[in-house]
Amino acid sequence: MRRPLPWPGCRNARDLGDLPGIRDRALIRSEGHERLTAEGRRALLAYGVSRVIDLRLPAECERLPSPFARAPVYRNVSVLGPRDVLLAGMGADLAEIYRVILDDFAAYVTSAVAAVAQAPPGGVVVHCHSGRDRTGLVTALALRIAGVSRALVAEDYALTAAHLGLEEDADDTARAHFEQTRPETMLATLDHLDSRYGGALPYLLGHGMGAADVRALKGRICADLLT
């Protein structure tokens, strides 16, 4: 199993450059950074990160502010738009929640992926609260654009459970919260993306991402392309 990056105070940070065809230190996913220690913050910046993209709602950012919130490296690009949105009422099925996000918040999801493409040279960290749902969707779209297989995208998604929720000492609440963080959940989401939209590329192009940004995204994260 791929190990999290050694950023003290951040348990679910991982470099997607471990995946075939993805450039090292180009795209990193994590949970929120409010628990990062001073050493952890230094380690993140020393990793070559030029942009931190916070996918949380503005209200979440106010409640648990990022330590980078006032730094030039930081951008808040909410996947759920500017207003407080309650997704819990849609039920417990994660794949269904992901389908709702992809369908009803498509422009915001696309803006988040475009923000990765538009970041200054360097690594991009994408995070939400736990680094599972919103982060999982945005990184899945980016990885599919880069040609990473569905199986590997789903496998990467499931690592969050091991890093945060399903460790040996995890309590019952944590286990219940993360028990759906399985490859099958992401595979069902990708099935919906493919069947309704024709895949990641038509989805993004159809909701406002330009062809130049698609090229920039590939150039940024694909190991065999120049930036």
UniProtKB/TrEMBL annotation:
Source organism per UniProt: Streptosporangium roseum (strain ATCC 12428 / DSM 43021 / JCM 3005 / KCTC 9067 / NCIMB 10171 / NRRL 2505 / NI 9100)
Molecular functions (GO terms): phosphoprotein phosphatase activity
Protein name: Protein tyrosine/serine phosphatase
Ranges annotated as spanning the membrane: none
Domain Tyrosine specific protein phosphatases: 103-143
InterPro entries: Prot-tyrosine_phosphatase-like (IPR029021), Tyr/Ser_Pase_IphP-type (IPR026893), Tyr_Pase_AS (IPR016130), Tyr_Pase_dom (IPR000387)
One family name in Pfam for this protein: Y_phosphatase3
Superkingdom classification of source: Bacteria
